[in-house]
């Protein structure tokens, strides 16, 4: 029964910014913590330009979307699941007005073969200078 609530971390996805695992398996479900576009081993965020104080000067939502989707894939695969096993995706955007159309187009490209339930929410800020974060639930064998 100890294996029923397993904490999982990916060796490819960016390190968590707090005390939490990349994912937690409970039964045949895999719950992912919020996943952003950062690259592992660095604070670099694809498509983001910061000033000396860490404020966002500019960002490319397409680059961030692609990076987030890749990071989710890393976590799923390292945990023994897969992209096609996603059943629920919650997306947090910091600028719905400017970014939704691009995000929605890319989402349709990445999820054309698997269509999990989806919720998209605008929030005013994320813990790091990113414009998108995903929270996912997947099936796992």
TrEMBL record:
InterPro entries: RutC-like_sf, YjgF/YER057c/UK114
Pfam families listed in its UniProt record: Ribonuc_L-PSP
Domain of life according to the entry: Bacteria
UniProt name for this protein: RidA family protein
Originating organism: Pontibacter anaerobius
